[in-house]
C-alpha cells in the first residue's frame, strides 16, 4: 500500500505540470480566437461604416425632343416600320425626361439622404442651341426634382461646355453665360461665391462639418474649339489659376482638406485622342496640381468611368494625382446611364458606390442597381492619392482586373453587346449573319481576327 501511495505522489508534479500547460495553451488559444474575432468584427464594422456623402450626376444632357420611335442614328424622328419603342432612351442618343424621372425615383431607395448634390456639368442635350431662357428651363428640369427630393440641401455646379448658349462658349460671351447660369444656381451661393462665379464661372464652398473646402472650377475656358479660339496672351483667363493657388492655401491654413470638381479634364480624351487643353494650359494646370496637394478631383465630360492622370509622373513609382471621371447619365456614347454616391470623412473620400441601369436588358423599365463599389473593386482602404495610385497598379497587375475595369468604363454597355446576346441563340451560318444584319453591324468589326484561320 505504502509503495503505491509513494508512486502516486512522485507522479503528481508531472501530472500537474501537464495539466497547467494544457490550461495555459487553451487560454492562449481562446485569447487568440477572441482577439481575431474582435479584429475581424472591427474591420467589418469599419468597412460597413456609413460616412457623410454626396450625390454626383454628370453629363445628363436631357433631351426634350427625343422620339422613342427613333433609331440611334437620328434620335428625334420616328423611323418607319420600327417595332421597338425606346421610351427610356437608347444608346447613341441623349435621354428623354422619362429616364431622368426614373433616376430620381431610384434615389429614394438607393440614396435616401445626402449632405449635398454635385452636378458635373452638361445638363442640356448636345447642340441644343436656343436662347438663354431655354437653357435655364433645362437647368431647372434637373434641379427642381432634386430640390424636392432633398430639401434644404445645396446643389453645386461645375459648368460644362453645353451649359453655354453656344457650345463651349467664347470669351466674348462668357459673362452673359455666367450670369444666366447664376440665375438658377445663385440661390445656393453667397455674395463672395456669386462674385467669382459671375467673373469666371468658378467658386468654392467650405464645409466645416466635413473638414472640406470644395473648389468648383471652370475648365471649359481652357479648351481650344471652333468657338473658343486659343489666345496665347491669355495666360490666366479670369485669374482662375491664381485663385486656385490662393484659395487652396487659405483652406489648408484653416485646417481643411481641399477637393476639386471640374467638367473638362486636362488629359487625353479617349474617343478623340487629343488633350482637353492646349499645351500652355495643360502645363500650367499640371503645375498647379503638383504644387497643391488636393484631396481629390472629380471630373466629367468624357461620359465614361476612368481614372485620369492630371500630370506626368517623374518616375514610374511616383504617386500622382488622378481625376475620378464618372460615366454619364446620357447614354449617347454607347454607355449605360449611371450616377455615383461618394462617402467622405475628414475631407478624404472614403468610397463611392456606382449605380447604373442597363437600358438594353431592361428597355421598358430601367432597374437602377449597384454596379460596383470602388474599395471592393480595387482592394484599397479609401480614395486618397496613395490609394488611387495603388488602384491603378492593381488594375495593371492582372488580366481579370483590367477586364473588370473595361466593363466599368461604359457601365457594362458596349456597341456590339446586342450581337453577342443574339449569337447565344445562333446555330447556323444564316443565324449568325441574321444577327449582324438585324443590328446593322459588320462581322469583321465584331471579330477582327476571325479571318486568320483556325
From TrEMBL:
Membrane-crossing residue ranges in chain numbering: 20-43
Pfam families: Metallophos
Residue ranges of every copy of the Calcineurin-like phosphoesterase domain listed in the record: 55-304
Keyword annotations from UniProtKB, A to Z: Glycoprotein, Hydrolase, Membrane, Transmembrane, Transmembrane helix
Gene Ontology molecular-function annotations: hydrolase activity
Keyword Hydrolase: yes
InterPro entries (UniProt xref): Calcineurin-like_PHP, Metallo-depent_PP-like
Keyword Transcription regulation in record: no
Protein name: Ser/Thr protein phosphatase, putative
Native source species: Trichomonas vaginalis (strain ATCC PRA-98 / G3)
Amino acid at each position: 500500500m505504502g509503495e503505491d501511495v509513494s508512486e502516486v505522489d512522485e507522479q503528481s508534479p508531472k501530472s500537474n505540470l501537464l495539466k497547467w500547460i494544457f490550461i495555459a495553451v487553451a487560454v492562449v488559444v481562446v485569447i487568440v480566437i477572441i482577439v481575431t474575432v474582435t479584429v475581424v468584427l472591427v474591420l467589418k464594422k469599419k468597412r460597413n461604416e456609413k460616412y457623410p456623402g454626396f450625390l454626383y450626376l454628370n453629363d445628363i444632357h436631357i433631351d426634350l425632343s427625343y422620339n422613342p420611335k427613333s433609331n440611334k442614328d437620328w434620335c428625334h424622328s420616328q423611323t418607319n416600320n420600327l417595332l421597338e419603342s425606346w421610351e427610356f432612351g437608347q444608346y447613341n442618343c441623349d435621354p428623354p425626361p422619362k429616364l431622368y424621372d426614373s433616376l430620381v425615383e431610384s434615389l429614394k431607395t438607393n440614396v435616401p439622404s445626402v449632405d449635398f448634390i454635385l452636378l458635373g456639368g452638361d445638363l442640356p442635350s448636345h447642340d441644343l442651341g436656343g436662347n438663354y431662357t431655354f437653357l435655364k428651363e433645362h437647368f431647372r428640369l434637373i434641379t427642381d426634382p432634386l430640390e424636392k427630393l432633398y430639401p434644404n440641401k445645396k446643389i453645386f455646379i461645375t459648368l460644362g461646355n453645353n451649359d453655354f448658349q453656344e457650345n463651349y462658349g467664347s470669351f466674348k460671351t462668357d459673362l452673359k453665360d455666367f450670369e444666366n447660369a447664376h440665375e438658377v444656381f445663385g440661390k445656393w451661393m453667397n455674395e463672395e461665391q456669386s462674385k467669382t462665379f459671375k467673373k469666371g464661372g468658378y467658386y468654392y464652398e467650405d464645409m466645416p462639418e466635413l473638414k472640406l473646402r470644395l473648389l468648383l472650377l471652370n475648365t471649359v475656358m481652357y479648351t481650344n474649339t471652333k468657338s473658343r479660339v486659343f489666345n496665347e496672351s491669355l495666360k490666366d483667363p479670369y485669374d482662375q489659376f491664381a485663385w486656385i493657388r490662393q484659395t487652396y492655401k487659405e483652406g489648408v491654413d484653416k485646417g481643411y482638406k481641399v477637393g476639386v470638381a471640374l467638367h473638362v479634364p486636362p488629359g487625353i480624351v479617349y474617343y478623340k485622342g487629343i488633350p482637353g487643353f492646349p499645351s500652355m494650359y495643360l502645363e500650367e494646370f499640371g503645375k498647379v496640381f503638383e504644387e497643391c496637394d488636393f484631396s481629390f478631383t472629380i471630373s466629367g465630360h468624357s461620359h465614361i468611368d476612368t481614372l485620369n492622370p492630371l500630370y506626368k509622373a517623374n518616375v514610374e513609382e511616383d504617386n500622382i494625382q488622378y481625376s475620378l471621371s464618372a460615366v454619364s447619365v446620357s447614354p449617347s456614347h454607347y454607355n449605360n446611364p449611371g450616377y455615383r454616391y461618394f462617402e467622405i470623412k475628414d475631407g478624404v473620400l472614403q468610397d463611392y458606390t456606382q449605380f447604373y441601369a442597363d437600358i438594353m436588358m431592361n428597355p421598358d423599365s430601367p432597374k437602377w442597381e449597384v454596379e460596383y463599389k470602388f474599395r471592393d473593386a480595387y482592394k484599397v482602404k479609401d480614395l486618397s492619392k496613395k490609394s488611387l495610385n495603388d488602384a491603378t497598379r492593381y488594375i495593371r497587375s492582372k488580366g481579370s482586373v483590367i477586364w473588370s475595369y473595361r466593363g466599368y468604363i461604359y457601365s457594362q454597355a458596349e456597341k456590339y453587346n446586342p450581337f453577342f446576346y443574339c449569337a447565344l441563340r445562333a446555330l447556323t451560318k444564316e443565324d449568325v449573319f441574321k444577327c449582324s444584319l438585324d443590328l446593322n453591324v459588320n462581322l469583321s468589326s465584331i471579330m477582327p481576327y476571325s479571318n486568320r484561320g483556325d
